[in-house]
Amino acid sequence: MKKDLSIIIISVLMLVIAGDVGPEHVSKLMSKSVPSDHFFFQRNYPDNHLDLKAFRSALIEAKEDAKQKNSTVPSLLSWFGEGPGNIGGRINEVLVHPLHHDTIYVGNASGGIFKTVDGGASWTAIFDDHPYLAIGELVFDPQDANIVFAGTGDPNISGYPFYGNGIYKSPDGGDSWIHLGLSEVGIISRIAVHPGNSNIIYVAAMGIPYERDQNRGLYKTINGGSTWEKVLYVDDDAGIIDLLMNPLNPDTLFAASWNRIRNNSESLVYGPDAKIHKTVNGGISWTTLGGGLPVGSYSRIGLSMSAQNNNKIFAVYTNSSYQVEGIYKSSNNGSTWVTLPYNSIFSYAFGGFGWYFGQIRVSPYNENELFLLGVDLYKTSNGGNAWAPAGPNWATYQFHADKHDLVYIDSLTILCATDGGLYKSIDGGNNWTDIESIANCQFYRIAADPHETGFYAGGLQDNGTVYGNEANLNSWQRLNGGDGFQPIFDYNNSNIMYSESQNGALYYTTGSNWQYFGYGINSVDRRSWDTPLIMSAHSSSTLYCGTYQVYKNASAPYGLWSSISSDLTDGINNKFHVITTVAESPLDSTILYAGTSDGNVWRSLNGGGNWTAIYSSLPDRYVTHIIASPNFVNGVFVSHSGYRDGVFIPHIHYSSDYGSNWTDISGDMPQLAVNNMYAMTGFADLMVFVATDGGVYSTDNGGLKWARLGKNMPMVPVYDIDFDLTNQKLIAGTFGRSMMSIHIDSMFTVLADRGITASETQIDVYPNPAGAFIQMNTRRGDKVQIFDMLGRMVQQADVFEDNVSLSVNELKKGQYFIVIRAEDQVRKGKFLKL
To answer: pLDDT grade, residue 348 (50/70/90)?
Structure first.
């Protein structure tokens, strides 16, 4: 795909109905979406809930791997950030130094904490040494702004809900951090520090989002975090989502509770415990407030207090349709409440998923100036009698959708944290400028461009499909809308590219605009949020995808899709029972594989005509990925997700007989879910890379030993990996720190001699480097195959004479592997094409 992709017009229109949310706000330009619950099914199946203890143990082991200083080549390599920095990822929290306004901290949904001291011109990651990078809250010590408190976990509890491991304190502005406990409370939503005694701290917790637990509620310490007492508990499915402390009377606090459970079998978003609670004695006793507040079952509640009059409090309620139920004001410290006048924007401001925002802010300079944070931002300057949009509509991407936090620097200067980065207004909220270049995007799928050296594409949560690289870190191009998933480049035609958005919406472009090409796929098929889509290595016009059956398009992008399998799942009419991965052998186009969310693995040896189950000896776990060997026609890898405390789950297997028999090759890898795999061409299936929930791991001995790849990737999940042949780089799509890359060519020299097994013989190819022709020792009846570094067969020929000379004039410059197959042996070699 050429670098002039800026001419591509964003034209996707999609209405999303996912999980527990209603139809979202849809613009004329592009779709806006929310994440699916398949995260849970992927890691839980066949259990109902994520085994948190096993999950934590695996992350701790991965963190220990990252700390180890050893001399192995994989551990000594370094990752580099490819970007994007300009697209912007999910920011939950923003904190501005009270005296030095150019010093700003942001807490990311899954990417850690970043700090700037120059107003956003440059940013530094300051929390990467810790295993939990979801940040829900940041506050200063009111007596010393060099002391920062951070609460871990993502309180917005979306379909990819990251929990934390408690509260941290930095005594030096983020240079170092001390863990203060509360490891079991799951998600911290708010922190309030006593203005006159910094040893008194209150922490609001939403608990573990996957399950009912007793750790939800409001916690208090009187000794700086050495010990904690739970001073408010509402229910095992209701935590505390918001918290206010009266700075003039710090024993008076207001806490908003919220019923919230989210897993693959249950999604509780509203309930009878959505209430506001008040204490006047530091949490010894509490009163549930009424006096004009709504009564019944509601969703998230947001609170804000006037800085000019601490007796004046505002609350926004989200109703069971996830829209604004109403905005309420108390002028007497919560005793009674009045409803602000209804405005038509309330019917759509939250876009049908108000549980994701539920925030209101009052200006510290003018208590009649309020902002309502939703899909867009809305402002009133007269105490709520009239509301109007503050800034451009989200669909223009000038001011990103989904507002999560808003703070004032002065009466006109405001910062707003969104799902697309941090924005600044200097005119009271009318105009906004993106002021961060933080690489904190959440990638689902990625791909290297075979036509433009060193350029990459990827599908992002909430930010569509994007394109760029390290050299253009802050000028990546936005190609398509919605939630982005698998991009694919036509390796034979630089003008054709494919992209995918949520729930298997398939599009292609020939360089001008995006066209839908999902015709032929049954629209009622249940399918994965991350629907698998692959291109054949033998013909770029042949594509495969999977719903609960495998589909093939033999004349893409213009042809129709047709089913080539029956239902390969367990046949349960449930949206989670779907095909999750499809693979084709790069050595034989008739060999296909498919894996499902309910633990099934299938093969076809005749191009989809017949399918055989090959999973009887595999774990009954979610199948995340299958790759056919690029080296042996009968070789295949399969990976799984899943966590279970005290149970060893082999997360990666290998078969040398088309899946008839499997060998566990997970070796000493931590018990992490394996999300994606890449097997190198030319090393006899010994060199494999895997993307896990705790970074990227590699093996150079077929899985006997694994090493965490690179010494500087933070503890961030990686959902996809690919290989840049020209630059010899592995690229990783992280879910929280954008795209990263690592040069792995130094590993090849170590393994070069391992590419021949006992049943193989090395062959000489000459001239090497080659020009238009190569020559090698062949015999009549041999079959010659040439593969590129991606494992794709680019040329093959039958041999009708000894010592054949073969034209390679049409091959692009680069390194290639050559395989000569006879009845009794396999011989291998490699050459460089100039």
So the answer is: very high
DSSP-derived letter for residue 243 is: E
What value does the mean pLDDT take over residues 344-357? Answer: 94
Pick the CATH number of 758-833 from 3.40.50.2300, 2.60.40.3580, 1.10.3470.10, 3.40.630.30: 2.60.40.3580
| pLDDT score at 294 | 97
| Average confidence (pLDDT) over 325-339 | 97
For the stretch 112-123, pLDDT in tens is: 999 999 999 999
Opening angle at CA 378, ends 375 and 383, nearest 5: 145
Q: Which two tokens stand for residue 563?
A: 């089913």
The arithmetic mean of pLDDT across residues 643-670, rounded, is 95
C-alpha pair distances (Å), 603 with each of 598, 742, 810: 16, 33, 33
The Cα–Cα gap between 799 and 164 comes to: 61
Mean pLDDT (the chain) is 90
Q: What is the pLDDT of residues 525-539, one digit of tens each?
A: 999 999 999 999 999
User: Could you give the CA distance from residue 196 to residue 179 in angstroms, rounded to a whole number?
Assistant: 22
- pLDDT of 201 reads 98
Share of the chain above pLDDT 90, in %: 74
The CA distances from residue 95 to 105, 481, 825, in Å, are: 5, 30, 66
CB 166 within 8 A of CB 149: no
Q: What are the angstrom distances between the C-alpha of 544 and each of 230, 584, 593, 638?
A: 54, 9, 11, 18
Q: Which residues of 89-124 are buried (b: 16+ CB within 10 A; e: fewer)?
A: bbbbbbbbbeeeeebbbbbbbbbbbbbbeeebeebe
Confidence of residue 443 (pLDDT cuts 50, 70, 90): very high
Confidence class of residue 256 from pLDDT cuts 50, 70 and 90?
A: very high
Length of the chain: 834
Domain covering 443-753: architecture: 7 Propeller (2.130)
Instruction: Give the single-character DSSP code of 426.
Output: S
Are the C-beta atoms of 486 and 446 separated by less than 8 Å? Answer: no
* CA–CA separation, 407 and 491 (whole Å): 48
Q: Is the pLDDT of residue 263 over 80?
A: no
Q: How many Å apart are CA 805 and CA 512, to the nearest integer?
A: 43
- Would strands 760-762 and 826-833 be described as parallel, antiparallel, or unpaired? parallel
DSSP-based three-state secondary structure for 491: coil
Give pLDDT, residue 682: 77
Task: Provide the token pair at 124.
Answer: 């530094």
SS3 at position 283: coil
> Tokens 């090849």 sit at which residue?
748
Q: Is the dihedral of CA 724, 729, 730, 736 positive or negative?
A: negative
Minimal CA–CA distance to 275: which of 221, 228, 324, 239? 239
Residue by residue, DSSP assigns 27-69 as -SS-------THHHHHHHTTSSS--HHHHHHHHHHHHHHHH--
Handedness of CA 288, 292, 295, 299 (dihedral sign): negative
Can you read off the two tokens belonging to residue 230?
């739970």
Which pLDDT value is given to residue 512?
83
Confidence band (pLDDT; 50, 70, 90) for 434?
very high
Parse the chain into domains and list their residue ranges: 443-753, 758-833
3-state secondary structure of 219: strand
CA distance 719 to 121: 30
pTM recorded for the entire structure: 0.86
Instruction: Provide the terminal-to-terminal Cα distance of the chain, rounded to the nearest Å.
Output: 23
CA distance 16 to 25: 9
User: Token match 């690229």: residue?
Assistant: 731
**Above 80 in pLDDT, residue 218?**
yes
Four-CA torsion 642, 644, 645, 649, nearest 10 degrees: -70
* Tokens standing for residue 481: 């809308």
For the segment 720-742, the average pLDDT, to the nearest whole number, is 95
